[in-house]
């Protein structure tokens, strides 16, 4: 099971060890392919909403996922960001929202452990599906704050194929300095003013960053034998290898040069469907072995 860790962990390494970032820059960033299966083709993304989300909050996520495979967006677009995954062996992964299941009454309680996530992931079955568990801001999940989300797989039952799932939590009130940066001040380092969230919701816009990270990791390393660097139980994947980078000129504590909406003052780097704007993290680009940004 792969985790994504908050920006604060990344920044702390560079803050304590000033030479760390310079050493990393001198090393080529290479994600090794471990000859495993990647997710290629058409996939339905099933959304499992755990806890209370407003319709407006749910639409932010739905529009984002559907934007990834759209052809009608203004550049720079969420779909052009996602196209980088085509450069990983095997071609394109086309995503579209499938089923949506709401658990607004917290049937498993407000404190979830890893087995609960597996149980929720098993609530929706299907071929060529990715089950996404989204937990509300008042739901505590095992390891939250040490990780901003995770992706993994479920064992196939009665000869069925293994399923893949991921979990992302709303960090509006839980570790926003770790999991919602740069829309919240970081836990460590210079306390620069946070950026304005493009969808007006720090928790949901933070979820978009982590969801994007995990979706890319899911299709390029679904079963811990795809593309990654480092140990399989704590891999650096397509986007988590580029933590903290959103635009050109980024460095620890500074997300890089971004676009700014003239009306709202919100920072973003990708356009989506229905007039949406998103801030998406850099993704490792196989041909150049570098973290690629949209702006």
TrEMBL record:
<dbReference type="Pfam" id="PF04674">
    <property type="entry name" value="Phi_1"/>
</dbReference>
<protein>
    <recommendedName>
        <fullName>Protein EXORDIUM-like 2</fullName>
    </recommendedName>
</protein>
<dbReference type="InterPro" id="IPR006766">
    <property type="entry name" value="EXORDIUM-like"/>
</dbReference>
<keyword id="KW-0732">Signal</keyword>
<dbReference type="GO" id="GO:0048046">
    <property type="term" value="C:apoplast"/>
</dbReference>
<keyword id="KW-0052">Apoplast</keyword>
<keyword id="KW-0964">Secreted</keyword>
<comment type="similarity">
    <text>Belongs to the EXORDIUM family.</text>
</comment>
<feature type="signal peptide">
    <location>
        <begin position="1"/>
        <end position="21"/>
    </location>
</feature>
């Amino acid at each position: 099971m792969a985790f994504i860790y908050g920006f604060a962990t990344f920044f702390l390494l560079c803050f304590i060890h000033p030479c760390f970032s310079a050493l990393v820059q001198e090393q080529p960033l290479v994600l090794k392919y471990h000859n495993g299966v990647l997710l290629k083709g058409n996939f339905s993304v099933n959304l499992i909403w755990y806890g209370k989300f407003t319709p407006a909050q749910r639409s932010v996520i739905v529009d984002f996922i559907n934007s990834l495979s759209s052809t009608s967006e203004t550049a720079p677009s969420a779909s052009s960001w996602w196209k980088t995954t085509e450069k990983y062996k095997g071609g394109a992964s086309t995503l579209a929202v499938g089923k949506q299941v709401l658990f607004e009454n917290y049937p498993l309680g407000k404190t979830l452990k890893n087995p609960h996530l597996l149980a929720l992931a098993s609530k929706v079955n299907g071929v060529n599906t990715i089950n996404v568990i989204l937990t509300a801001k008042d739901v505590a999940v095992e390891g939250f704050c040490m990780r901003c989300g995770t992706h993994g797989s479920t064992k196939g039952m009665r000869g069925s194929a293994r399923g893949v799932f991921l979990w992302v939590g709303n960090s509006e009130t839980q570790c926003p300095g770790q999991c919602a940066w740069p829309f919240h001040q970081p836990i460590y380092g210079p306390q620069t003013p946070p950026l304005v969230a493009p969808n007006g919701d720090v928790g949901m816009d933070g979820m978009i960053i982590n969801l994007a990270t995990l979706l890319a990791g899911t299709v390029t390393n679904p079963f811990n034998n795809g593309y990654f660097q480092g140990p399989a139980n704590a891999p650096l994947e397509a986007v988590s290898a580029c933590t903290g980078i959103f635009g050109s000129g980024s460095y620890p504590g500074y997300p890089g040069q971004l676009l700014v909406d003239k009306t709202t003052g919100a920072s973003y780097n990708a356009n989506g469907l229905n007039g949406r704007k998103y801030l998406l993290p850099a993704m490792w680009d196989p041909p150049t072995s570098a973290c690629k940004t949209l702006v």
